[in-house]
């Protein structure tokens, strides 16, 4: 946003007026649906690199497990629906699956789309009703794995649902998943995994103004978190993607709370949360990590701007697991417990919703520092001299643990059970006048 960039570029002294009363604090009871699903999910946070062997191998391995097939026998369907260039996007994934061992004849692109791909002679926008094709639905039942490409997640729900009910193709996909197939997707293909799903919005917009149930994607003046119907393959909470890179934890916290979800899961780019229903665990693989938000003991004001306290937030990376039924963690042995922090006391992070800021706050600034509290600020200017935003205080508790180690030569962290409080604030700018005589010396 323009105001955000302006604020970061101003050389100024911030006078922070922080003060809000927590009103009408309450914890709403929430329940998690139980199921007997035998399948698995590979939920990628977007920007999946074709060189990410770990993610592709995991997807193919789970597909092999379904019907005890060899890799070259596995049958894969690619859903191109969300992409503006459906055939081009799906073909790229097809190439990757073949590269990692799938047989070209066993990888199909399903004719379900809403956009015409200019790289082909065919008009793919005519595939809009493909999900209602009974013959295609029967064919889908033969697949061991189904992959959802990125793009606009609303295109998935618009084509795969009819007034909230499953189309024949979606019913077949759901049947496959229940019986043991693996479903995977990246970016928009990750967003659809929960129900409701997040369709748009920013962290500061969600905390400032709350939620909307009308599509506000592309509306620069409306940054509320947009909640809408998802496909609901993952039942233990709300999923968000591009998470740490784009600082989306504010919108996930608000979106999960307002939708009545106790849990929120934010998976970062080029990484995957692999959902194993057999042991009710989530395994993290790939380049970055997974943020897990637990609102079971959180309190929130009913009004906006939002004030919250006692939000439980954790961050885990490659090789780590979370067990959602017991809410416990299994941290890889490659990352021992941090007993002697490496970094000195932390300073305030003035762009906590910026790229990778959350990871830095939770790790370098908190569990691996001499501080038992780390502070982050997020604000927007309303004019040249003042603005509004939020102060986020991340605190260690008796249950907080930090882990650090190296995996394949790269450092890896885990920060477990950090307490987060969010407080609205006002910002005043005092801009020092430039000494013109000093400027003349240049």
Walk me through what this model shows.
The protein is an alpha+beta fold and 442 residues long. It has a domain at 40-328: Rossmann fold (3-Layer(aba) Sandwich), CATH 3.40.50.880. The chain has eleven helices and 24 strands. Strands 1, 12, 13, 16, 17, 18, 21, 22, 23 and 24 form a ten-stranded mixed sheet that branches. β19 and β20 (328-330) form a beta hairpin. α4 packs parallel to α6. It starts with a helix and ends with a helix. The model is unreliable at 1-34 (pLDDT under 50).
Feature tags:
Rossmann fold; 442 residues; nine-stranded mixed β-sheet
Percent helix: 10-25%
Number of strands: 24
- The CATH topology of one domain corresponds to Rossmann fold
Can you count the helices? 11
């Amino acid at each position: 946003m323009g105001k955000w960039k302006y604020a970061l570029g101003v050389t100024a002294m911030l006078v922070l007026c922080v003060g809000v009363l927590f009103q009408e604090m309450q914890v709403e009871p929430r329940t998690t649906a139980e199921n007997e699903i035998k399948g698995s999910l590979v939920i990628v946070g977007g920007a999946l690199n074709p060189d990410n062997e770990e993610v592709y191998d995991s997807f193919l391995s789970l597909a092999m497990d379904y019907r005890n097939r060899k890799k070259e026998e596995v049958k894969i369907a690619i859903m191109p629906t969300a992409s503006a260039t459906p055939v081009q996007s799906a073909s790229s994934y097809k190439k990757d699956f073949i590269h990692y061992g799938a047989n070209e004849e066993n990888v199909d692109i399903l004719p379900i789309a809403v956009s015409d791909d200019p790289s082909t002679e065919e008009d793919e926008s005519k595939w809009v009703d493909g999900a209602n094709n009974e013959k295609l639905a029967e064919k889908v039942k033969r697949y061991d794995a189904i992959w959802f490409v990125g793009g606009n997640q609303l295109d998935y729900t618009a084509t795969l649902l009819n007034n909230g009910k499953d189309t024949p193709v979606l019913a077949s996909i759901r049947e496959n998943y229940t019986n043991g197939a693996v479903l995977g997707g990246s970016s928009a293909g990750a967003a659809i995994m929960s129900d409701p799903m997040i369709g748009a919005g920013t962290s500061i917009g969600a905390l400032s103004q709350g939620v909307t149930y009308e599509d506000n994607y592309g509306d620069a003046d409306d940054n509320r978190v947009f909640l809408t119907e998802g496909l609901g393959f993952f039942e233990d909470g709300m999923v968000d993607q591009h998470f740490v890179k784009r600082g989306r934890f504010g919108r996930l916290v608000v979106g999960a709370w307002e939708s009545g979800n106790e849990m929120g899961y934010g998976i970062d780019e080029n990484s995957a949360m692999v959902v194993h229903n057999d042991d009710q665990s989530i395994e993290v693989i790939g380049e970055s990590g997974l943020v897990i938000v637990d609102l079971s003991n959180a309190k929130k004001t009913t009004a906006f701007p939002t004030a919250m306290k006692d939000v439980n937030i954790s961050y885990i990376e490659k090789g780590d697991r979370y067990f959602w039924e017991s809410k416990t963690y299994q941290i890889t042995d490659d990352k021992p417990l941090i007993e002697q922090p490496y970094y000195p006391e932390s300073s305030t992070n003035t762009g906590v919703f910026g790229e990778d800021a959350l990871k830095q706050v939770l790790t370098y600034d908190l569990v691996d520092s001499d501080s038992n509290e780390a502070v982050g600020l997020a604000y927007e200017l309303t004019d040249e001299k003042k603005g509004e935003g939020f102060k986020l205080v991340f605190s260690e508790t008796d249950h907080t643990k930090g882990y650090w180690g190296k995996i394949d030569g790269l450092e890896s962290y885990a920060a477990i059970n950090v307490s987060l409080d969010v407080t609205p604030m006002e910002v005043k700018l005092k801009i020092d006048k430039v000494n013109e005589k000093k400027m003349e010396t240049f």
